[in-house]
Amino acid sequence: MGFTGLVRWTNAPSAAADLIRQNIIVNHQGVLRGRWQVVLSSWRSRFTGDSNDMRSLERPLYTVTMNDNTFVMLEDPGAPNRSDYLRLKESQEQGQPPHPFVAAPPPHYHYTLVTVSPPGALEQLMSHLGVVGKRWIRTGGEKGQGSGHHLNVDGLIFSIGSDWLVRFGHVMLGGGAVKGMLIEAEYLPLPDLHTEGGEGRSELLSDFLASIIPILPDSEIWTVAVSDEMWAEVLAGFGEDDAGEEAESKMDEAEDDLFVSPEYLPATRKTDWLGANRDKRSAYLIQGALKGEALI
């Protein structure tokens, strides 16, 4: 599993998938590997209460189903951001006046991204708890389409050599309307890539995607990018320590010696780019792009 980049082609013509497929086969000697299918849906809470009470604010929830997993993204405006909490905690440890958020760790942060398996388990749980239609209702779809519960991405997966995987497909609303395309490129040799400045855009992926997408007049194409700080906010689990960073700090302080004590070796940490965790980052990119267009 490698590093992934996503592109949104909002006004892609109906023949765009065939054009990309032909370009990959003819100019890049790509090989078809299978179908790319993603299902998205959105919910919103129906909690009521005092408008001044942050706990009563509406909570949007988005689900992205890929392969055998559903990735659930919950936004709670009443919870602090992880970065804000850690910053306030650090300031208190340095002797500054205490802050209410630092009194006790929050049960969760503003953004929560979890993996649910098998697909459909979340709906079954919500139905079992009796919260569907009472506390949570489905939303999504094109404005004016009250029945638009789902949004689908349907396309193909190609490999190019041993370094690249390319996924592309049309974005289709529940009613059948097509809303452009998504094109995703995965560079397999790199498990992670911190972009210059942390803005989330990679010239390597951008140049490669430019060679994949056909040049058509008046095309509206943009890159979906997430900063390194936002990745840390969304993907970091609550209570996760920074053992790796502490170990690296100790390594810097240690003398340059032929022998290295095991206590100074960096701790083994799971990468964000293995198995379902790679799909998790891809799912977050996809839901972010389509949420920005109010399609979910």
Q: Can you offer a commentary on this structure?
A:
The structure is a single chain. The chain contains 7 helices and 10 strands. By secondary structure, it is an alpha+beta fold. Strands 1, 2, 3, 4, 5, 6, 7, 8, 9 and 10 form a 10-stranded antiparallel beta sheet that branches. A hairpin with a 4-residue loop joins strand 8 and strand 9 (178-187). The protein is globular.
SSE layout:
Elements: E1 3-9, H1 16-28, E2 31-45, E3 60-66, E4 69-75, H2 82-93, E5 111-116, H3 121-129, E6 136-139, E7 150-160, E8 164-173, E9 178-187, H4 203-212, E10 221-224, H5 228-235, H6 243-253, H7 276-292
Antiparallel strand pairs: 1-9, 1-10, 2-3, 2-6, 2-7, 3-4, 4-5, 7-8, 8-9
Provide a brief overview of the structure.
The protein is α+β, with helices and mostly antiparallel strands and 296 residues long. It has helices spanning 16-28, 82-93, 121-129, 203-212, 228-235, 243-253, 276-292, and strands at residues 3-9, 31-45, 60-66, 69-75, 111-116, 136-139, 150-160, 164-173, 178-187, 221-224. Helix content is 27%, strand content 27%.
